[in-house]
Specification:
The complex is a heterotrimer of chains A (502), B (421) and C (251).
Chain A (H helix, E strand, L loop, with lengths): L13 H8 L15 E3 L6 H10 L4 H16 L22 E3 L14 H9 L9 E2 L2 E2 L7 E7 L2 E5 L2 H6 L3 E4 H7 L1 H7 L10 H9 L4 E5 L8 E7 L10 E6 L4 E9 L7 E11 L4 E8 L12 E11 L5 E8 L4 E4 L2 E4 L5 E10 L4 E10 L5 E11 L3 E10 L7 E11 L4 E10 L5 E10 L2 H9 L4 H17 L4 H14 L6
Parallel strand pairs in A: 5-9, 8-10, 9-11, 10-12, 11-13, 12-14, 13-15, 14-16, 14-17, 15-18, 16-19, 17-19, 18-20, 19-21, 20-22, 21-23, 22-24
Antiparallel strand pairs in A: 1-2, 3-4, 5-6, 7-8
Chain B lengths: L15 H5 L4 H17 L15 H4 L22 E6 L2 E2 L10 E5 H4 L13 H5 L7 H9 L4 E5 L7 E6 L5 E10 L4 E8 L4 E10 L4 E8 L5 E10 L4 E8 L4 E10 L5 E11 L3 E10 L5 E11 L3 E10 L6 E11 L5 E10 L4 E10 L3 H9 L4 H17 L5 H17 L1
Parallel strand pairs in B: 1-5, 4-6, 5-7, 6-8, 7-9, 8-10, 9-11, 10-12, 11-13, 12-14, 13-15, 14-16, 15-17, 16-18, 17-19
Antiparallel strand pairs in B: 1-2, 3-4
Helix pairs in contact in B: 2-6, 7-8, 8-9
Chain C lengths: L1 E10 L4 E11 L4 E5 L6 H9 L4 E10 L2 E2 L5 H6 L2 E4 L6 E5 H15 L7 H14 L4 H5 L1 E2 L5 H15 L3 E5 L7 H14 L5 E6 L3 H5 L4 E6 L2 E6 L2 H18 L1
Parallel strand pairs in C: 3-10, 3-11, 6-9, 9-10
Antiparallel strand pairs in C: 1-2, 1-4, 4-5, 7-8, 11-12
The chains are: A alpha/beta (502), B alpha/beta (421), C alpha/beta (251).
């Protein structure tokens, strides 16, 4: 059939169709790695916080910081404003630290890493070798290499291309390493974007985070390759609390990718991450996420509870940040990657696809806080609900009195597949000066029957047709992703909607 | 005799004996159950999400401290053929209300002493239905303590609009509760102008039966006054409900409109235009529930603000499971004439049915420089050009008024108001 | 009528010089045309003359009947007799065409210290003039330019011109977006307003409009300056050879 003839929203290309066709089965990453683990005792206390700190050989200031966060956390209440409903989490019934036994001695190089771990990442499509491969897409020679930091449960297993990056002045390592090796940078910036007491989950993370990634791009440097972190939760009953800190110094640029998966388990698991981005004058960060944590089964059993605080602080003039997220996994998602546009002429962008199928619940969106003059923000959100899922866009656009001549454009569209799911939109718009212009548009509708019929009359089965149409609906966001991720994301869109029709 | 509305503040403890003093059976029951509702829910607090952008303090404080008299008021619809009802300081100013074909008009004061009355099926009932999922305790307080209001039973097409004009003198608190019952296939227009008290708490319950039609036009002006209004509407199959409010005065206004579309093929429209100046705070809070098939709802709100005026819009469309073929539209826009003014909006969609077409849009910004230049290049002085563009901006809301003559009256009034300031 | 001397203009926001010394002298009763490639500064000239914000005059002057206009507000220039027919007439939803016209006519009269036109008189005049331009009653009732076709918008501009009776009319790319019939109708409207006192400045990219509105003088503008002035034959030359030759000639 001639694909050119298909009148699907915003031109879905042959590539998409191929990606969609290549797929079968449901959650692809639900297998488990049999590996000997070492756990901290179950539950949360000051002792556990001390233990995590000592496992990471942390200096005292870091321990003090964690303890202050822990004490603060004890005073906080779990937020209940999001449109998500889940059983009360017993924070004492979790492991807060789990690491493969083989990681007790830090491997000197990737060659020393436990082959089982290397195999795990290979199976996930993330080979920890310094070659131009990610997610099975082979890049043309000499182009698009991606450095990977691999986090397995509570620890970073290894980081590729470190030496080469260091030549360019770029620091890319695990956050635990950064606390030891670059304390001046960590002390200056950690918690400066997301304060310790920002919210319940961020405070919890501040107390117990075990690892994560650290990036510093020096002034004037364009990071020579894409950086990525791949998070894998493997152990049962274990929460993952990772912390990421990226500092883009003046006139620097980096594109950062993040992926996450977890095995299929009957019991829900907790994930509470904090990501802080700092941008100085003329810096630019592109941060892309494909979140594919185990979503739970079709009856809502198991899955990851994903409570994430992500924020970029555009401190510098003319700095620019772009968040792109494809949220297909997790049983519960609570996540609002935000931009504080402090510097004059700074820009924030948020592109999001959130798919909720079966019993999944997603409450996600962004905050654009305009503080500087002539700042710009753009929000493109595409929510897809299927099965019995609930999907909410929640966002804030705030124009402060001093943010003169600023602009915001928000487009948030929801698509419903089936009559048992819900799609909700909760934007807050606060305009406190008149030279700024704010435009917000939102629509909610169902998958277009004519488009589906058209696809099916050309030979696609219903699921293929839906995947194709949904990919068209998401096109604007998919295009914002780096190429390798875009392919993976297209495929994911299709997988996530398995069983949503018929 | 019943306690006068001036002395009943919203927070004074609701004592059963006072509430039912002089009440007939139906009113007794309605007042006591409302009192229970109000006490259970408690008064709104500053931290309440539903009061995020408007502080409830001024409505819940024990005593009214405003000196806000409005004696004359406008003679906006005087040229039209109208059925006139005058309120003064919260009292209907007529021993006998006018007679009109196809409807009966009564005062709440006189109807509430009877043991049986048609209003029992509506009074407090729609307000109660509107307490879910969000508590509106000040409306429940109103049901419990209101002693005056207009009760209209509409049985056919009423030709002339019913016009309530309210005036007040000084430091008065008015708690008024109107009930309009529109029978199947009947039609009526209600116009409200003026101010009931220095501080007013007004509830309007409207029950529109199948294929009934209800039109509501309201002009809120006045000076220092504070005003909280609730409209609770129950709309039957193929029925139509339209409400338009123009606010061009007053210090604090919160207009809540809570509508339930319970019959198939019904349509509702809630619209508002407001001109805010100086210490003006205006809040439109709308909650429309679609609980039937193939219904349409529209929300059109336009706010023009200057000199530090604050405009708030909270609008929600809730589409319940099974309410297929819903067409929901919502637009809220502000025109900020200077840097001190603020627009705060929370337009929400909550949707549990898939075959729907719902949309909302919200914009905020300054006057369009290109249009301003166009007008000035034609010789229109800047101030006049701004007025014209203001009219242009609010026109979409005024267009929601079905009756062209009444829409023209509103437009003329607005033009006058603009040129006078 | 209109005398422009050594006019230099830059964009306020971008600090970009658009007009670099424009000299023009337009006599009463004459039709002048300005032609030029895109980006030559033609539209900027029309905006600066009519008083749009965003432009800064760094040097030079412009006088209407001996009075300096560059310091006047847009509405004062209009009352002084200057009219710009916009390339893209602005839509104003909610404001009726008639209301708009009447407001403009009376505002100008007021600024000039004249008496306002009564509603009856206004209606009579506007109906007659609208008829000449084939503008029906419906178009007069509708909001200003909202839902108008390209041709209707331009006819509406000419109707405003007819009602406001300016001395100096500037037509900015009035032919853009018009088919031949619509252009003829607009040209007829303009020609009907020509007399021995009223002056026109017709800005256009193509010669075709000048087939219908015959100019007395043709100027070629490029890179912010008038680079050549001649009779109607100059427009034909451009039509046949394009702007490239002329630009080379100058360079």
């Amino acid at each position: 059939m001639a694909m050119d003839d298909v009148q699907v929203k915003d031109g879905v290309d042959a590539e998409t169709v191929e990606a969609v066709k290549a797929l079968s089965g449901t959650y692809k990453y639900g297998w488990n790695t049999e590996i000997e683990m070492e756990y901290a005792p179950k539950g949360l206390s000051e002792d556990i916080v001390r233990l995590i700190s000592s496992k990471n050989d942390e200096p005292e200031w870091m321990l003090d910081w964690r303890l202050a966060a822990y004490r603060r956390w004890l005073e906080l209440k779990e937020p209940d404003w999001a449109m998500v409903d889940y059983p009360t989490i017993d924070f004492q019934d979790q492991y807060y630290y789990a690491r493969p036994k083989s990681m007790e001695e830090k491997p000197k190089s990737l060659d020393d890493v436990d082959p089982k771990l290397l195999e795990t990442y290979k199976k996930l499509g993330i080979p920890l070798k310094e070659q131009a491969l990610l997610a099975g897409v082979e890049a043309p020679e000499g182009e698009r290499r991606v450095a990977v930091d691999a986090v397995f449960d509570s620890v970073s297993v290894g980081t590729t291309f470190q030496a080469e990056l260091r030549k360019a002045g770029v620091i890319f390592c695990s956050i635990s390493e950064a606390i030891r090796e670059h304390p001046e940078l960590v002390r200056q910036y950690l918690g400066s974007v997301v304060p310790v007491s920002d919210n319940y989950y961020a405070t919890l993370n501040s107390a117990v985070f075990s690892d994560g990634s650290f990036v510093y791009i020096p002034p004037g440097v364009r990071c020579p390759m894409e950086l990525s972190t791949y998070f894998r939760i493997n152990a049962e009953n274990t929460g993952q609390f990772e912390r990421t800190l990226i500092i883009a110094d003046k006139e620097s640029y980096v594109s950062y990718l993040e992926g996450c998966t977890a095995p299929q388990r009957d019991v829900a698991q907790l994930h509470a991450a904090v990501v802080e981005l700092v941008l100085l004058d003329d810096a630019e960060i592109k941060y892309s996420t494909v979140q594919n944590w185990f979503p739970g089964d079709e009856n809502g059993k198991g899955g990851i509870y994903n409570f994430v605080t992500k924020r970029a602080d555009c401190r510098g003039h003319r700095s620019k940040v772009m968040w792109t997220q494809v949220e297909t996994g997790s049983a519960v998602t609570w996540k609002y990657p935000s931009c504080v546009l402090r510097g004059d002429d700074s820009q924030g962008e948020f592109y999001s696809i959130a798919i909720a199928n079966n019993m999944q619940q997603a409450d996600t969106g962004t905050k654009m806080v305009h503080l500087g003059k002539n700042t710009k923000s753009r929000i493109i959100s595409k929510g897809i609900s299927a099965g019995r899922a609930q999907n909410t866009y929640r966002g804030l656009v705030s124009m402060h009195p001093k943010a003169k001549s600023s602009r915001n454009y928000t487009q948030c569209d929801s698509l419903l597949i089936g009559d048992k799911c819900g799609a909700h939109t909760v934007p807050y718009i606060e305009v406190k000066n008149n030279s700024s212009r704010v435009e917000h548009e939102a629509t909610t509708s169902k998958v277009d029957d004519d488009q589906l019929f058209y696809c099916r009359s050309r030979g696609m089965d219903e699921e293929e047709a839906v995947a194709l149409v949904v990919n068209g609906f998401c096109k604007e966001v998919l295009q914002a992703l780096p190429m390798e991720f875009a392919m993976e994301a297209q495929a994911l869109v299709a997988i996530s909607l398995e069983g949503s029709v018929g | 005799m019943a306690a006068s509305s001036q002395t009943t503040s919203p927070t004074r403890a609701l004592r059963d004996a006072d509430l039912i003093d002089g009440s007939g059976a139906w009113a007794k029951e309605a007042r006591l159950t409302a009192s229970d509702r109000a006490q259970a829910a408690g008064l709104p607090q500053r931290r309440d999400e539903y009061w995020k952008y408007t502080r409830p303090d001024a409505f819940v404080q024990a005593d009214v401290t405003l000196q806000a008299s409005l004696r004359s008021g406008l003679n906006l619809f005087d040229q039209r053929n109208i059925i006139s009802v005058a309120f003064e300081d919260g009292k209907i100013q007529a021993a006998v209300l006018p007679n009109a074909a196809q409807c009966t008009l009564e005062s709440l004061a006189s109807a509430s002493v009877l043991d049986l009355h048609w209003a029992r099926d509506v009074y407090g009932r729609l307000e109660e239905a509107g307490q879910n999922p969000i508590k509106r305790s000040l409306a429940a307080v109103n049901t419990a303590v209101a002693r005056e209001g207009l009760l209209v039973n509409v049985t056919g097409a009423v030709e002339a609009p019913i016009h309530i004009h309210a005036t007040s003198s000084g430091q008065s608190d008015a708690i008024i509760h109107h009930v309009i019952k529109v029978a199947a296939g009947a039609e009526v227009t209600l116009i409200e102008t003026g101010q009931y008290g220095a501080r007013s708490n007004i509830v309007l319950e409207v029950d529109v039966a199948d294929a009934g039609r209800f039109h509501h036009i309201r002009v809120q002006d006045g000076n220092e006054r504070h005003m909280l209004t609730h409209i609770f509407g129950r709309i039957g199959a193929e029925a139509s409900f339209k409400s338009f409010t123009l606010t061009a005065g007053g210090q604090l206004t919160r207009n809540e409109c809570v509508l339930q579309l319970l019959g198939d093929d019904a349509s509702v429209s809630v619209a508002g235009a407001c001109l805010g100046d100086g210490g003006f705070h205006h809040d439109d809070t709308v909650f429309i529930t679609h609980d039937a098939v193939n219904c349409e709802s529209r929300q059109v709100f336009k706010k023009v603000l200057r000199n530090g005026a604050v405009g708030v819009f909270q609008g929600k469309i809730l589409v319940k499971a099974g309410a297929q073929k819903t067409d929901g539209y919502q637009i809220s826009q502000s025109l900020l004439l200077d840097d001190d003014s603020q627009f705060l909006a929370k337009p929400e969609l909550e949707i549990y049915a898939d075959d729907v077409a719902c949309s909302h849009g919200s914009t905020s910004g300054a006057i369009d420089a290109q249009a301003l230049f166009y007008l000035r290049s034609r010789g229109v002085p800047e101030a006049k050009a701004v007025d014209l563009l203001t009219l242009s901006f609010v026109a979409e809301a005024i267009e929601e008024i079905e009756d062209e003559d009444l829409a023209q009256d509103i437009l003329d009034h607005l033009t006058e108001t603009l040129s006078a300031r | 009528m209109l005398k422009i001397k050594n006019l230099h203009v830059k964009l306020e926001e971008e600090d970009k010089q658009i007009l670099k010394g424009v000299n023009l002298s337009l006599e009463p009763g004459k039709v002048h045309a300005i032609m030029g490639p895109n980006g030559s500064g033609k539209s900027t000239l029309s905006y600066v003359l009519s008083g749009k914000d965003g432009y800064e005059v760094t040097e030079g002057s412009a006088q209407l009947e001996g009075v300096d206009i560059l310091d006047m507000e847009a509405e004062e220039r209009a009352a002084a007799g200057l009219f710009l027919a916009f390339q893209y007439p602005v839509e104003i939803p909610g404001v009726g065409n008639m209301t708009f016209l009447r407001t403009a006519v009376n505002a100008q009269r007021k600024l000039r210290g004249e008496e306002e036109m009564s509603a009856g008189e206004f209606l009579k005049v506007v109906r007659a003039k609208a008829e000449d331009l084939k503008i029906d009653a419906d178009m007069l009732k509708r909001p200003v330019n909202v839902g108008f076709s390209g041709g209707e918008k331009k006819r509406n501009e000419i109707l405003q011109m007819a009602m406001l009776e300016p001395k100096m009319c500037i037509l900015d790319e009035t032919d853009s977006g018009l088919d031949v019939d619509a252009m003829k109708l607009v040209a007829q409207g303009v020609n009907a307003l020509r007399d021995d006192k009223r002056t026109f400045l017709v800005i256009t990219h193509y010669q075709r409009l000048l087939d219908h509105i015959k100019p007395d003088v043709v100027h070629i503008m490029a890179n912010g300056r008038i680079i050549k002035t001649g009779g109607p034959e100059l427009a034909l030359e451009v039509e046949n050879n394009g702007y490239a030759d002329l630009l080379e000639e100058i360079a």
